[in-house]
Amino acid sequence: MDEVERLKRRRRADADRRFAKRLQRQSELSVGHTAHLRLHEGKPLLYDQMCAAIAACVEVDDVKDIRSKAIALDAYYKQAGNFEAERNATKIRLRAEHRLGELLKELTKTEATARSPGRAGISGGARRKLSPYAAALNRHGIPERDARRFQELADVPADEFEAALEDPMVPLHAASIINRGKPKEPKPAPTCTVSDESLTLWGTLCELERYGGLLAADYKWSFDKMTAPMLADLRRLAPLTVAFAQALIAALDAHATEHARGLE
Description:
By secondary structure, the protein is mainly α. The protein contains 10 helices and 4 strands.
């Protein structure tokens, strides 16, 4: 390995270490075999205690703070290659988002109208006031799209939410948990494109069968009211019709045979 390549690797390693230290400071991470976060009072909390802390939160900013720390922790352990710790950090984030959705659903979404005080002799005008819900999103910097996802996550029953977190077959994503219990829409039946010639053949023969039983063997033919040109056309077309019918029967038999071979 030449000197340039060694220098590049050393720089990448130094950058990775700086990144890890920055994440450690941002998430107040204590590095060790057992991962834990620190809350405001500095008390280390294990995973189960973190779950209880999230469930006990009654303010949006408290839950949002835990979620931010969990995101940083998730990124740190992903870089470190610690799969189990990364998965636990992701669970903490999802629990925080679930709790955020519950708290946001409790807020009123209807805007209020307040009348601003006017000057002497002049009545004040009405001004719109943000709803508690919109004010919370604005105050905490929560995008509306994320807020909707948090509330959809909160709509998942508690037992189904817990089962999804512990199911190794369910990806740890909000969308996967939200859609896990929803019935899957049946796939539309495949459409079969029928040619115009096939439709004409099928429709014509069905129409002959329906109209007075023209295809019946004992049909009573009546040529008395036909003109000479009509009779001439019938004489010309009758042999062609017989040949056509024989060719049609042969083609149908060949198709049935081929189809049966395909099923074997």
